């Protein structure tokens, strides 16, 4: 059973809701420290259980087409500014896997930059040129992932994450 908000409560349909959300995001403290504490307290096997199936569902077609084959055995970390929260993942035996530890490449940015990237609201190159997202470590690996994600047709939605 999927939950949905009435159209009047969607920020795009109601200026009062969008203005209220903007005001709250400006004055409320950043959720990053709380998310970091939660991230540090969750063991890697639980993260694997929560994240691997949805990631593999989102990118199932690209995985089946061999688009991720160049990433076999490689480790990439996505990290919110400040180091926590973050997730390291790799590609082994035809599946995206959540791993423990650092990545060969790290893509770092704010929560809003990752949200913008996942919603495809802005060209990924702009996010990097504006320094809202930064690649560290093996930049060639990070750029290859960015280019792959930019070339794929994928939908990052809550429904797709948790439902088949």
TrEMBL record:
UniProt domain SCP2: residue ranges: 56-150
Listed Pfam families: SCP2
Domain of life: Bacteria
UniProt KW keywords: Ubiquinone biosynthesis
Pathway named in the protein's UniProt entry: Cofactor biosynthesis; ubiquinone biosynthesis
Signal peptide coordinates: none
Cited function: Required for O(2)-independent ubiquinone (coenzyme Q) biosynthesis. Likely functions as an accessory factor.
Family: Belongs to the UbiT family.
Protein name: Ubiquinone biosynthesis accessory factor UbiT
Organism in which the protein naturally occurs: Marinobacter aromaticivorans
